[in-house]
Structures are given as structure tokens and as C-alpha cells.
Design goal:
Elements lengths: L1 E5 L4 E8 L6 E7 L2 E3 L2 H9 L1 H26 L11 H10 L17 H15 L6 H61 L3 H14 L4 E7 L6 E3 L13 E9 L4 E7 L9 E5 L5 E5 L2 H26 L5 E11 L6 E12 H4 L9 H7 L1 E4 L17
Parallel strand pairs: 5-7, 8-11
Antiparallel strand pairs: 1-2, 2-3, 3-4, 5-6, 7-8, 9-10, 11-12, 12-13
Helix pairs in contact: 3-5, 4-5, 7-9
Length: 392
């Protein structure tokens, strides 16, 4: 936070730095571009209302930045796409007809005797001058030319109009061809969504999953169609804005009424460990989060991830009735001592109840327990290993 402070006896530039890691505040003073160290001036600066206001803004900015950062981890469910009104889309599919090009009209007014007479009157004033019989001579001038002039004007107007209409004919053919192609493409795409085959629904799911930018989907695997598989090159890993990376494996069963999702969840070590708050004194407090708080954030985040991916599946096709989401993360297998992918939750989302959710107002960690689930939580919100749906 930088600002200038002007008083009758001094003028300084003030820079306020609030450390995001520990809340430590540093006040720097500059005069004519050079840093100054004068405790008496610093004391004067700190007494000023302008300084106090800017100091509070700097503190609030640190708090807001941290809060926004936390929300990017814990409010992933709010990224969920809206589930289409499939019945409305079916009706739209039946009733929508190709849009046709709207021709432009030739707007130039057709010449007539009155218009041409006005033009000839102006011409006669320029060409017929003198003192005697001026009015009569000008009238004769107009009468001698009016018929020919009207005929020439109308002929020129028709020629211009014909050129315009021929150009519109070309444009109309080109635009209607383009509009028809767009209509056919839209019709096919919508038909594929409304009446998908196993292959098209798998392709649609693959296309959506691979286009997700946040959380970062590092790999996608289709169990039904292995050709719809993708792994992000490792060289791209370092350019992600946030370390929320996950992998998705999906399968459609029961005539595509059920989508089974296996999600390789982000590691809990990737989550923020510091809690930033504003004390009653106005100062920033930065403390290490308790294990319980970290676990709570992690639970909200991975619950939000499950809701987000379920909503993606429901929004792809009307045939999807149930989405089963199983979340895995890497844990030490106490039997072998090796790190393995182990299930920590498995949830069955049904379309009817899922469609009733007000996504913006839910607590995802509570929502996930509203549906049929396999999940074990300790009092400190630690997730225990579970047996997912479909496994005995």
C-alpha cells in the first residue's frame, strides 16, 4: 500500500507492507525518491488519519487475499455447471427451424417528377440569369429537360437497384448455406446429447473432463473406450496456478443410466496450513491451523470436487440417472508399509435429489452425507479408508 502524506511542514511518500506469512507490518518513508529514517517523522505519520485508514486497508487486503485463496480450495462445488432442462431442450429440438438470412432492402428512394423538378430548379437558377423574363426562361429550361432527366434518373436508379439485389442474392445464398450448416451441426450435437449412444456419451464426458481447467485434471481414462484417455505432460505441471490436481477414471453402465467415477484426489499436503484473521486491535494475526481445521478444509474441498464432477455428468446427458463418485488418495498401507491409492469416500448421487440442490448455499461436506454414501469420519474430521460401492 503506497500513498503520499502532505502536511504544512513536511511531505513524504509512505509505503505500508503487511507480511502475508506472519502479519508483521513494515512502514517505509521516502522523500524525493530516497528512503529516510527519522523516528520523529514516523511518529507524526502514524498519528495521521490518512495513515491509519491506509494501514487498515493494507491489513484488510491481506485478509481478503487469504480468504479468497482458501475459498478456491473449499468452494469448488460452486463451479458446478447448471443441469439443463432436458424436457425444454427436447421441445426446442422439435420446434426449432433453420434461421434464414434477412435480406437488406434497397433504401434509396425511386426518383419522381417532383424530386427531379427540384434539382432542375436549382440548376436553372445557376444557368439562367439576367433581368428580363427570368422566371419564364427558367420554367422553359425545366420543361425542356424534365422528361429526359426523369427517364435518366429512373434508369440509373433501376441499374443501381439491380446491382444491389444481385449482390444480396449472392450474400443470401452464402449466408443461408452457412446458417443451414450451423443448424445441422447444432441439431446433430443436441441429438447426440438427447439420444446418446454409449460411445457418444463417453466421448462427451471425455471432452468435458479434458477441458476442465480448475481443478486441474492431470489424467482422464475411459473404462468403456480406452481411446478416450488423456494424460497431461509433466512439463505442464509447474504452470498450474494452484496445486489442486486430480485424475479421473469413468465408466458408463446399465445402458448409460449410471456413471461410475473414480477420482484421484489432491493430496492434503497441498492445502493451506495458515489461518489469517483480524484482531480487535485491527492487526493481522497469522496462526498455524490445527489438524482438525486442515482436515475440515480438506473434507469440504474433496466433497466439493465430488459434487462438481457429478454435476458435470448430469449436465452431459438426460440418460444419466445416478453418478457414483469414489475418491482415492495416497496412503500408507499399514499391512505392506507401501503407499497405495485407497478409497476415502464413495457417494451415490441420484438425479432427482441432486437437481434439488441449491449449490451456492450448501456445505459440501454436509451434502455428501445427505446422499447414500460410504464414508468414515473421526471427531477430528480425518477420513478413514472405506470399501467403495461395487466392491464387497
Amino acid at each position: 500500500m503506497e500513498f503520499c502524506l502532505h502536511k504544512h511542514n513536511f511531505e513524504v511518500e509512505v509505503q505500508i507492507l503487511v507480511d502475508e506469512d506472519d502479519g508483521k507490518e513494515t512502514i517505509l518513508l521516502f522523500k524525493n525518491g530516497e528512503e529516510i529514517h527519522d523516528d520523529s517523522i514516523l511518529r507524526k505519520v502514524k498519528r495521521e488519519k490518512n495513515f491509519k485508514d491506509n494501514l487498515q486497508i493494507a491489513r484488510q487486503n491481506v485478509f481478503n487475499k487469504n480468504s479468497e485463496y482458501i475459498r478456491k480450495f473449499t468452494e469448488l462445488h460452486k463451479l458446478s455447471p447448471e443441469i439443463p432442462d432436458w424436457e425444454k431442450l427436447k421441445d426446442q429440438f422439435k420446434k426449432t427451424v433453420p434461421k434464414l438470412y434477412t435480406r437488406y432492402k434497397f433504401k434509396e428512394e425511386k426518383p419522381n417528377k417532383e424530386i427531379v423538378t427540384e434539382e432542375l430548379q436549382s440548376e436553372a437558377k445557376r444557368n439562367v440569369k439576367g433581368i428580363f423574363f427570368v422566371k419564364k426562361r427558367r420554367k422553359s429550361y425545366i420543361n425542356a429537360r424534365i422528361e429526359k432527366k426523369v427517364s435518366e434518373k429512373i434508369t440509373a436508379w433501376h441499374d443501381k437497384k439491380n446491382i444491389f439485389e444481385k449482390e444480396q442474392d449472392k450474400i443470401e445464398v452464402f449466408e443461408n448455406d452457412k446458417l443451414l450448416k450451423q443448424y445441422i451441426s447444432w441439431k446433430k450435437e443436441l441429438n447426440d446429447r438427447l439420444n446418446p449412444t454409449e460411445q457418444t456419451i463417453n466421448k462427451q464426458l471425455y471432452d468435458v473432463f479434458t477441458s476442465i481447467e480448475y481443478p486441474s485434471v492431470a489424467s482422464v481414462v475411459s473404462v468403456n473406450y480406452p481411446e478416450f484417455s488423456f494424460k497431461k505432460p509433466l512439463m505442464l505441471d509447474n504452470i498450474e496456478n494452484l496445486p489442486l490436481k486430480c485424475g479421473v477414471s469413468f465408466e458408463t453402465v446399465d445402458e448409460d443410466k449410471i456413471v461410475i467415477l473414480d477420482i484421484d484426489l489432491p493430496r492434503i499436503e497441498c492445502y493451506p496450513t495458515k489461518k489469517v484473521s483480524i484482531l480487535t486491535s485491527g492487526k493481522i494475526s497469522v496462526k498455524k491451523k490445527s489438524l482438525k481445521d486442515i482436515n475440515q478444509d480438506y473434507l469440504r474441498s474433496i466433497s466439493g470436487i465430488s459434487i462438481y464432477f457429478a454435476s458435470v455428468c448430469f449436465s452431459v446427458s438426460p440418460t444419466v440417472e445416478i453418478v457414483t463418485v469414489t475418491g482415492f488418495n495416497e496412503r500408507i498401507n499399514t499391512a505392506t508399509g507401501n503407499e497405495e491409492n485407497q478409497s476415502v469416500y464413495s457417494v451415490k448421487y441420484d438425479k432427482k435429489n441432486f437437481g434439488m440442490l441449491n449449490i451456492d448455499n450448501i456445505d459440501p461436506s454436509a451434502t455428501i452425507q445427505f446422499f447414500e454414501n460410504h464414508m468414515k469420519l473421526t471427531k477430528s474430521f480425518d477420513l478413514k479408508i472405506i470399501v467403495p460401492f461395487g466392491e464387497s
